[in-house]
Structure formats: C-alpha cells, structure tokens
Amino acid sequence: MPGDSFFHRLDPRTKILGLFLYGVGILGAPxxxxxxxxxxxxLIATGAxxxxxxxxxxxxxxxxxFLVAILTLEALLIPxxxxxxxxxLVISREGLYQGLTAAGRVLFLLVAAFLLTAxxxxxxxxxxxxxxxxxxxxxKLPAEELxxxxxxxxxxxxTLLEEAERISKAQAARGFSLEGENLFKKGMGLLxxxxxLFVSTLKRAEDxxxxxxxRGYQPGSVRTQIRPLxxxxxxxxxxxxxFLLAGLALIWH
Length: 253
Description:
Layout: H1 6-9, H2 12-28, H3 31-48, H4 53-60, H5 64-77, E1 82-86, E2 89-92, H6 93-118, H7 122-132, H8 143-173, H9 183-189, H10 191-214, H11 233-252
Antiparallel strand pairs: 1-2
C-alpha cells in the first residue's frame, strides 16, 4: 500500500532484518507480559504507518480460529493449578498462561510481517532479499535466481487468483455446485477447478521462460541497478532499536 510514512521510507534490507530481530524478541520474551508488551509495539507501528485498521483486520480475520485453537489446546492440555472445571475438561492456570503466550507470539509476528509487506513493494522486497543473500555467493548460493523467483511469484499471485475466479464462474454458469455436499465430496469437487488452473499455470510458466530467453537472460549474471539501495541514519536507528529489544527479551528470558 503506497505511503510516505517512516516505515515506507526505510530500506527494504532494514525492514527484513528488523522483522528477524523483532521475531527473536517476540519468541524470546518470557510469558504473556513480555510478549504482549513487545507485540503492542507492532500495533503502534502499524498505526503510525498510516495503514487502515480494517485492512489489517481483513488479513488477520481468517486466522482467528487458528489462534483460538492454540489458546484452547494449551489451556486444556497443560497440567497445573485448576482454574475452570467443566466435566472432563480442566483449564489450568499454567495452560492459560502458555496459551496466551503462544497465541500472542503468532498474532504479533503476523502483524509485523503484514507491516513489512504492506509498506514495501514486491520489487523492493526482492531487491532487499537479493542484497542480503549476496554474501552467500561464495557458497554458491543463487541470490539473483532466488530474488527473481520471489519477484515472479509475488507478481503472478493476483493473476492466478483472477484465473481461479474466472474458472469458478465458468463452472458455476454450467450448473456446477457443491452446496450441501459433505467434506470429502467438496474436496473431490475442487479437481475441476485445480486441474485447469494447474494447466494454465504451466502454460504461463513456459511462456515466461521463453520470454526470458528471448531477452538474453543468463542465470548467475551480476547486473547493475538503476536505483541502488542505500541505508541512511533512520535505517541504522531502526535496526539498533530492534537489536536492543531482542537482546533485552533474551536477557529477561
């Protein structure tokens, strides 16, 4: 999502490394107090970047069931001091404590990842990843190829979704419906959608490969960039803050 906030202007390498350090801090923070304290920073950063709350909610809404399942299973399966007793089900204090911690870690890591992808264009994200993988060239790590793969994958996600919607509407126009069917039949009913989508994807991949060859693409070639990435003092400040948070979380742990 375009914008001109502090996070939009950061170097993509800074945001990728910052997400890694923030993840270390979230996973290393002991208990729900530390986890939710660090997690609140990601929510504040999302608000400061000017991203609409409804857009964040739209991304997280499908995962609510998964987060509730984590909390419930931890609360029921970890033994400890009994808090709630409902027949054979017992919710322990330790289980609830661990459940809140685990669900919070997943939730706030997703918020931080959303902040990264929402304030960074796919092209800049791929360029940042390519620069970070450059030291791996000595170990024959194909940094340029991995960056190209990431760029193409992000580029064709909307195209594949549009293709899937077109195929689905075409089948619905021919009377195809899975309403009222059981789970197994619904799973088998996805084949008429997946098979043409898979064939279409292979055809697009073949056309793309021929286009790359026609333009003289050579794997492993080092290329210059029209807009080289350059880190400034806000980038170093952002990394220092994330490094400090990760270090304090590990020491606290």
